[in-house]
User: Which sequence fits this backbone?
């Protein structure tokens, strides 16, 4: 596929709000597969039309939507079909229970496989959770501006303890205040 045609196709998807694609998505989008797709993707990355974000995940480089939440959208693409939500240090930082803000890194609980993915947008750390979907839905919050749900403070604290992660940075006074706020 010619770069100009690919740019036109990706721009039309971008208008619909779609700018992160798995390799499987691009098979459909470009109507190519195998060696032909592989060569096209290499050419589009070299031409700075696509950014190779992580394993088999690409971002349209000229998207109007690339920004603060791109890392979360890439995370969704990497674990599509699984329950994923911000938790651990990311959620506790957002709730003010950890005073340090993780910069360029998100910690995501997933029902899929664990793993760490460095991307041009930051690092995604997936930690597997065996919690059931209903428990996840009841203990996470959907935020209109964020692609990923976020664990409420109590659930994030349970997750961090269950995963045996460091509790040194926690400010439990803030945690108590947060629990009171969430139960209102």
Assistant:
């Amino acid at each position: 596929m010619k770069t100009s045609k690919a740019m036109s196709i990706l721009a039309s998807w971008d208008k619909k709000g779609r700018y992160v694609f798995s390799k499987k998505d691009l098979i459909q989008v470009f109507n190519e597969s195998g060696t032909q797709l592989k060569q096209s993707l290499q050419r589009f990355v070299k031409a700075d039309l696509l950014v190779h974000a992580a394993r088999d995940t690409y971002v349209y480089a000229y998207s109007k939507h690339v920004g603060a939440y791109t890392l979360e959208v890439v995370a969704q693409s990497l674990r599509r079909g699984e329950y994923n939500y911000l938790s651990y240090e990311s959620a506790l930082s957002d709730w003010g229970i950890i005073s340090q803000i993780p910069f360029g890194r998100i910690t995501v609980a997933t029902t899929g496989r664990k793993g760490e993915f460095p991307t041009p947008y930051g690092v995604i750390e997936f930690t597997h959770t065996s919690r059931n979907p209903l428990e996840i839905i009841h203990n996470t919050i959907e935020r209109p501006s964020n692609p990923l749900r976020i664990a409420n403070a109590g659930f994030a604290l349970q997750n961090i303890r269950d995963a045996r992660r460091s509790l040194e940075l926690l400010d439990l006074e803030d945690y108590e205040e947060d629990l009171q706020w969430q139960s209102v």
In short: Residues 3-15 form the longest helix (13 residues). Residues 70-182 form one domain. The chain has two domains: 3-60, 70-182. DSSP finds eight helices and nine strands in the chain.
